[in-house]
Structure prediction request, 122 residues.
Amino acid sequence: MATECFLKALCLQKGREGGYRRTHSLHELVRDAQQHGLEFDAARLAEWPSQHDISDFRYATGRRVSSSELLSAYELTLDVCEAAASSLAVRLDTGKARFLILEPLVGDLEKRLLEEPPGPDQ
Prediction:
């Protein structure tokens, strides 16, 4: 969602006719934003989950994914947001913010994701 907002803000600010494309496709939005100065290698989006997969991840209805897959998508999200923010006329400093998730937590997170949710008596 943040990625989409940054890309649409860039298109809106740089004067794309009609503001921005009414889509959730990051591939289309990145192409549009590149026409307005976004410096981001769109080939990196080949690693990005499909819109269907993202919805499944968000609502926990799809296949289980590893914590490393989720972290990779998170890092890619931050990279797109950072690239779009640096292209805006009004500078938004993301401060190169990242969350450091240490290995024990990653393993624990993966274990927790695979556990059955607590029942109503717990």
Summary: Residues 31 and 42 are 8 Å apart (CA to CA). The chain is about 50% helix and 0% strand.
